[in-house]
Design brief:
Structural class: alpha+beta
Helix content: 40-55%
Order of helices and strands: HHHEEHHEE
Number of helices: 5
Radius of gyration: 18 Å
Number of strands: 4
Strand order of the largest sheet: 1-2-4-3
Length: 179
């Protein structure tokens, strides 16, 4: 089948899948995305060391998280300033939201997001690898994601490897709505 430039480019095989099959496929896609994220990182880590891998990880997340946030914001039809409720909703649609266990609570002008069970750290532990020192990249990732959803929201790390202060989760982040 040849499509002309104006045709809607979509995977027609998806049209025959049930809702349950589509949900299962989303989980597979999420795991595949996470595997790709991990293997490129480990390739650099093994060849050039952790510092070089972290540099490239930060640069990739600086760009990707904004793209992801913009697409989710558009998908959810969020207004320009959706506040913490909009951020909470957007966080639940991130690529890894359905394969990690998280918790999200709003209290006044604060939202606390906790990643209870992180597949990245679990996989590294299973492989006998040192934990991923994700705090520095997480600050970029979560700050830029939140700012893209609503430019009035700031982010700070509460707990994230290597600076774990909350043993009940893999990482936790505080988002504040500055009005």
């Amino acid at each position: 089948m040849v499509l002309s430039p104006g045709d809607n480019m979509k995977n027609h095989a998806l049209e025959n899948l049930s809702k349950d099959q589509l949900i299962d496929l989303i989980e597979i896609y999420s795991k595949n995305w996470l595997a790709l994220d991990g293997v490129w990182f480990q390739s650099i880590e093994n060849k050039l060391g952790m510092d070089e891998a972290m540099y490239h990880d930060a640069e990739a997340w600086r760009r990707f998280t904004v793209i992801e946030a913009k697409r989710i914001k558009e998908f959810l039809k969020l207004p320009e300033h959706p506040g913490l409720e909009g951020l909470r909703d957007a966080l639940s649609f991130r690529f890894y939201a359905n394969i990690n266990v998280d918790d999200c609570k709003i209290d006044g002008n604060r939202l606390v997001y906790k990643n209870i069970d992180c597949r990245v750290q679990t996989a590294r532990m299973r492989k006998g690898m040192e934990f991923h020192p994700c705090k520095s990249v997480g600050i970029i990732e979560y700050s830029e994601f939140a700012k893209t959803i609503d430019d009035r929201i700031s982010c700070r790390c509460i707990s994230c490897y290597p600076d774990i202060t909350d043993k009940d989760c893999c990482c936790s982040w505080e988002f504040t709505l500055n009005e």
